[in-house]
């Protein structure tokens, strides 16, 4: 089968669609058009100030935009001209009706499916007689089947669709590095002759820069489930280490020592063992809730409970950090001035979706503190910035005792203590006199 040489379209110009398609354009030379209903977002992609910040993204966009990478609001034209269409729309947690608070809201996803069938008019681009629709958004298992149904029943006679699941594993803040050298590219599709042809066509796109052995193929449900499970596992590790951070504080152990000791076991591995104020971001909580809903729908109550505990522990960690602050500052932060350094859900991103900082600031505001938030948002070394602040000068201007709560354990605690600060990290032996609150 010849490699795919036609045009590519992506519906959804967000955190996933934008960077992924910029990389596809750069590495393949194929013509890629990213479309979105949100005109402001498209205008931003076409401007000097991109709508999202990712280290290295601007360079990739500059090299390709206007040459073989285009951003447009004309969904129909782009869908018509491309035989491979990625769907990268938002699939937030449902806020109403059945599965409220757990299931994925597929409104945008179905909207995208309907625009694809509408734009698939006679004469529109096909590959080997069919259009290939690629699920990039994280969706519940079996969504590809539903998508095939919507597409197939609304398109002109004779047109066929192959729906593939090709979940994106990039992390925000390292999107460009992750896309340049992915650990794996997972492509799930139907095991029919046409399905395998579609999988091969998509694989030929990635093969421009991803070694063949890293392009993993499976059936469509395995691919859909793998994405949910990968995120659930990563989040579970963080909840595990966060749970142990509380035990460390209670026993005088140091969570960083424990994490490094267990992380050198190859069966455990060193990554995702950093304790913090709770995980945030648009994926972990949403995907676990989705997994929980899936288990509940299948009647697997114990399995659902098991995964739900990962979120409960995360909520506990966010609450606990807020309470630690109040308790430590003599049970009242009423009218106290508190500076919050960093508001995004992690370093190197301006994204604040589900950021633990939201909950922690909420706790402090409820306690009537005067909260000032600073986030450099888009500079590359924002965490280092925090490390290099002139803490001696800051100490001199602060009301005493001067407290620092280091939720990410990134500061030099010994040095700050020698300046005179009272500093408390998470999962560190308690160095402060804690007055227990209610
Ligand atoms: C995640 C997955 O890593 C990625 O594979 C998937 O495609 C999307 O979801 P992302 O949400 O961008 O990516 O960020 P990630 O780096 O995984 O961090 C998520 C949250 O966990 C952040 O709030 C981060 O601070 C926290 N975290 C991460 C920890 O608290 N400790 C760790 O050791 C790692
Ligand atoms: P993600 O983090 O998964 O990339 P985002 O919310 O950043 O999600 O981006 C999803 C994008 O998809 C949004 O910009 C939204 O406007 C766009 N979108 C949603 N539904 C449609 C649709 N039917 N057609 C085109 N774009 C859509």
TrEMBL record:
<dbReference type="GO" id="GO:0006065">
    <property type="term" value="P:UDP-glucuronate biosynthetic process"/>
</dbReference>
<keyword id="KW-0520">NAD</keyword>
<keyword id="KW-0560">Oxidoreductase</keyword>
<dbReference type="Pfam" id="PF03721">
    <property type="entry name" value="UDPG_MGDP_dh_N"/>
</dbReference>
<feature type="binding site">
    <location>
        <position position="172"/>
    </location>
    <ligand>
        <name>NAD(+)</name>
    </ligand>
</feature>
<feature type="binding site">
    <location>
        <begin position="12"/>
        <end position="17"/>
    </location>
    <ligand>
        <name>NAD(+)</name>
    </ligand>
</feature>
<dbReference type="InterPro" id="IPR036291">
    <property type="entry name" value="NAD(P)-bd_dom_sf"/>
</dbReference>
<dbReference type="InterPro" id="IPR036220">
    <property type="entry name" value="UDP-Glc/GDP-Man_DH_C_sf"/>
</dbReference>
<dbReference type="Pfam" id="PF03720">
    <property type="entry name" value="UDPG_MGDP_dh_C"/>
</dbReference>
<dbReference type="InterPro" id="IPR008927">
    <property type="entry name" value="6-PGluconate_DH-like_C_sf"/>
</dbReference>
<dbReference type="GO" id="GO:0005634">
    <property type="term" value="C:nucleus"/>
</dbReference>
<feature type="active site" description="Nucleophile">
    <location>
        <position position="283"/>
    </location>
</feature>
<comment type="similarity">
    <text>Belongs to the UDP-glucose/GDP-mannose dehydrogenase family.</text>
</comment>
<dbReference type="InterPro" id="IPR014026">
    <property type="entry name" value="UDP-Glc/GDP-Man_DH_dimer"/>
</dbReference>
<dbReference type="GO" id="GO:0003979">
    <property type="term" value="F:UDP-glucose 6-dehydrogenase activity"/>
</dbReference>
<dbReference type="InterPro" id="IPR001732">
    <property type="entry name" value="UDP-Glc/GDP-Man_DH_N"/>
</dbReference>
<feature type="binding site">
    <location>
        <begin position="283"/>
        <end position="286"/>
    </location>
    <ligand>
        <name>NAD(+)</name>
    </ligand>
</feature>
<feature type="binding site">
    <location>
        <begin position="137"/>
        <end position="138"/>
    </location>
    <ligand>
        <name>NAD(+)</name>
    </ligand>
</feature>
<feature type="binding site">
    <location>
        <begin position="89"/>
        <end position="93"/>
    </location>
    <ligand>
        <name>NAD(+)</name>
    </ligand>
</feature>
<feature type="domain" description="UDP-glucose/GDP-mannose dehydrogenase C-terminal">
    <location>
        <begin position="339"/>
        <end position="413"/>
    </location>
</feature>
<dbReference type="InterPro" id="IPR028356">
    <property type="entry name" value="UDPglc_DH_euk"/>
</dbReference>
<protein>
    <recommendedName>
        <fullName>UDP-glucose 6-dehydrogenase</fullName>
        <ecNumber>1.1.1.22</ecNumber>
    </recommendedName>
</protein>
<dbReference type="InterPro" id="IPR014027">
    <property type="entry name" value="UDP-Glc/GDP-Man_DH_C"/>
</dbReference>
<feature type="binding site">
    <location>
        <position position="353"/>
    </location>
    <ligand>
        <name>NAD(+)</name>
    </ligand>
</feature>
<dbReference type="GO" id="GO:0051287">
    <property type="term" value="F:NAD binding"/>
</dbReference>
<dbReference type="InterPro" id="IPR017476">
    <property type="entry name" value="UDP-Glc/GDP-Man"/>
</dbReference>
<feature type="binding site">
    <location>
        <position position="41"/>
    </location>
    <ligand>
        <name>NAD(+)</name>
    </ligand>
</feature>
<comment type="pathway">
    <text>Nucleotide-sugar biosynthesis; UDP-alpha-D-glucuronate biosynthesis; UDP-alpha-D-glucuronate from UDP-alpha-D-glucose: step 1/1.</text>
</comment>
<dbReference type="GO" id="GO:0006024">
    <property type="term" value="P:glycosaminoglycan biosynthetic process"/>
</dbReference>
<feature type="binding site">
    <location>
        <position position="36"/>
    </location>
    <ligand>
        <name>NAD(+)</name>
    </ligand>
</feature>
<dbReference type="Pfam" id="PF00984">
    <property type="entry name" value="UDPG_MGDP_dh"/>
</dbReference>
